[in-house]
Amino acid sequence: MENNSRGLNRLRTLYPFVCEDEGFPLPLYWSSEVKFYFVSLSENKLRVTYKGYGKTQLDAVSVKATRSIPSSCGLYYFEVKIISRGTDGYIGIGLSADEVDTNALPGWRENSFGYHGDDGKSFCSSGTGQPYGPTFTTNDVIGCGINFIDNTCFYTKNGLNLGTAFDDLPLNLYPTIGLNSHGEIVEANFGQSPFVYKIEDDMRELRARIASVILNYPIPDKPMEASIQSMIATYLVQHPQWCDVPRSASSASSSSGNASSDSSLSDVASSTCSSSSSSASLLTHFWFNRNFFHVSKDSRRKRKADDT
């Protein structure tokens, strides 16, 4: 129980912008809804063993994670350790949509993407692969990452980034593992334990890049600038953990009239976002947090209604 709690806390640190309103939305285990008797899951649902004979491609099977990857992750990553390559090492690691059937390696079917260990090729919705990376075998650790900002997928091998494998990806993809020869065993790490690859460095770099783009985006329209500033300040009052927002500002804004509220909120926005570090953290949070954009849309609708 303690290890499970520690694992969830680690995931919250990796993906701080994922909303937990409807339970924990991240992939945690392989799905136990496997339709093939020759595939078995360990008790913790992280290790998959192929017990079939794998004579042809018709004997291939894929197992998906319990949940799809939320785009609010910004950058998502998981790793798979090859415990045993089995007889032939026909192992595929990648992503697939919910509707993709599970009697093929990832990448062979439409809306599925995979990197295969026997030939090092990448497969994108096709049975024909493209040269991508090295082959992999027993004791290798293969990572798969999806960057929702650039809309790309990349892989790693034993802690080394192999570069972009796919782009123009659809949403709501599931981590997927495919097996096709006797004795293959793989074990997943969805982030509950430290990764071999230093994905945290990539995450920090991506968030800094996004924050820089937002901070340097020109806003020539002064009324719009004031409106955005007010909107940010309103959010800050409700979520003071992102900047050192005085609690008094919250009560002041709620007890004053509209004009004075806008003024105090603007003061809060300008004072709390004066440092580049807090601005970067705050604006990156805005970028990923869907609730903020919902608030923004509601505010625009209300403003439009007031104008009419």
TrEMBL record:
Residues 8-195 form the B30.2/SPRY domain. Belongs to the RANBP9/10 family. PANTHER family: RAN BINDING PROTEIN 9-RELATED. It comes from Daphnia galeata. InterPro entries: B30.2/SPRY, B30.2/SPRY_sf, ConA-like_dom_sf, SPRY_dom, SPRY_RanBP9/10, Ubq-SigPath_Reg. CDD domains: SPRY_RanBP9_10. This is B30.2/SPRY domain-containing protein. PROSITE patterns: B302_SPRY (PS50188). It holds the Pfam family SPRY. SMART domains: SPRY. Gene3D superfamilies: 2.60.120.920. It comes from the Eukaryota.
